[in-house]
Amino acid sequence: MQTSFTLAQLADPDIAEANTILRKCVHCGFCTATCPTYTLLGDERDSPRGRIYLIKQMLEAGEAATEETVRHVDRCLSCLSCMTTCPSSVHYMHLVDHARAHIEQTYQRPLGDRLLRGLLAWLLPHPGRFRWALRGAMLARPFAGLLPAKLRGMLRMAPKRLPQAAAWDGEERSRPLVFPAEGERRKRVALLTGCAQRVLDPAINDATIRLLNRLGCEVVVAQGSGCCGALEHHMGQEAAAHAKARANVAAWIAEADGAGLDAIVVNASGCGTNVKDYGFMLRNDAAWAERAARVAALAKDVSEVLLDLEIRPSGSAPALRLAYHSACSLQHGQKITQAPKQLLQRAGFQVSDVPEGHLCCGSAGTYNLLQPELATQLRDRKAANIRSVGADAVAAGNIGCLVQINDGLEAQQQPLLPVAHTVQWLDWATGGPKPPGVA
After folding, report:
1. Is the dihedral of CA 181, 184, 264, 404 positive or negative?
2. Taking the CB of residue 116, how many other CB atoms lie within 10 A of it?
3. Is residue 95 located within the same domain as residue 13?
4. What domain range is 417 assigned to?
5. Which of 245, 251, 246, 208 is nearest to 230 (CA)?
6. Disulfide-capable partner of 109 in 113, 146, 192, 400 (CB 3.0 to 4.6 Å)?
7. Quick one: residue 315, left, alpha or beta (phi over 0 = left, psi -120 to 50 = alpha)?
8. Residue 262 contacts by C-beta under 8 Å, 6 or more apart in sequence?
9. Crossing angle, helix 92-106 and helix 67-74, to 10 degrees?
10. Is the confidence at residue 171, as pLDDT, over 70?
11. Residue 302's pLDDT is what?
């Protein structure tokens, strides 16, 4: 693809990076075959190739984003299926992230949209606020029909019963939390406890800690670590996202330079994709670039760490057939496709792939709240595909997917399937408690 940026524009490192990405695109259109929004809408502008053209025009003009460009970029899930398909290695993720930052800086959204985005950024990365908001949402459920579609989606996400926070999971800590390994210590790892997951399903972190301890890992929750910044990053709010990245980098480097770390474990794949990109995100910050690159290199999805350890089934879990949903951020963002399935099989489960596994479930961070109509179509399609394999239960590695899939299965008004994180199934198989919903 030819570009026409001026020398002055190319002096901006972000524009220079965008120029490099754009020039790799050869217009082949392979990406359209695997793009969820193009599959649903059939509009070239809602395909990666179409969005690339719109972004190119916007950045070359160096002007405020137009309503048309914003509409089609907003419809992108950032599922990154296009990056798996692309034969030219176009780094669409970095391009669309830069486009969103440009939109955030130059485009005046309608008031309702601004308020909703501001509310999400104020609530979701902060577990205390989010927990109180969910309590209010549970009370408001009976009145959902009176609310606009986007607010109805937020109420639907609210659990009917709010799980109790883990006893160890306080909002502020004066020192790191350390969970010792059982037996001989094989690894020392830091766990990203996250933000929304801590509220929606704190049992995932508990299961992760138990499982890692059981397999010989000392687990530390570093003082000062918290939200990874992905939610704000994908809304184009760079300053807030980078501030959260720096806080995590500082916390984890302190642990790495202190007692040492073999890995930084992330059990929400959307967060993992973001943390693994910290080196790129902070590459232009001389004070943080080197430390951010170290953190990105240490970051591992929990399945990557577990694959190096010996899973020994205790015989406490029956040989259930699990439908494995491969989260987009895991299969496309991190290129991890086999490790979770191999672990589940080692633990004694039968594992079935879900048809159209490359297509997003529609969760995608805040997408199901900002684009509820498209997200619901993708949710229902995913739920139907899961049902089609005749599995006993569902496994996935990302909290957003778990909530979205459970919502989709519930909407079908058929018997519910238990839906749980991969680590919860592995924890059960090696001596831990049953995942929720298992008889």
Report:
1. negative
2. 19
3. yes
4. 321-429
5. 245
6. 113
7. left
8. 187, 188, 189
9. 130
10. no
11. 98
Asked whether the predicted pLDDT for residue 153 surpasses 70, the reply is no
DSSP 273-289: HHHTTHHHHTTT-TTTH
Whether residue 172 has pLDDT greater than 70? no
Q: What is the pLDDT of residues 257-315, one digit of tens each?
A: 999 999 999 999 999 999 999 999 999 999 999 999 999 999 999 999 999 998 989 88
Residue 109 CA to residue 106 CA, distance in Å, equals 10
Q: Is residue 312 part of a domain?
A: no
Same domain membership, residue 123 and residue 70: no
Label residue 163 by pLDDT band (50, 70, 90): confident
User: From residue 240, how far is each of 235, 247, 295, 333 by CA, in Å?
Assistant: 10, 11, 19, 22
- Decide: 392 and 439 in contact? Cβ < 8 Å: no
pLDDT band at 155 (very low <50, low <70, confident <90, very high): confident
Mean pLDDT taken over the chain: 93
SS3 207: helix
CATH of the domain at 63: 1.10.1060.10
Task: Give the end-to-end CA distance of the chain in Å, rounded to a whole number.
Answer: 56
Nearest Cα to Cα of residue 85 among 26, 125, 151: 26
Instruction: For residue 2, give Cα distances in angstroms to 25, 60, 85, 88, 166.
Output: 9, 11, 22, 15, 54
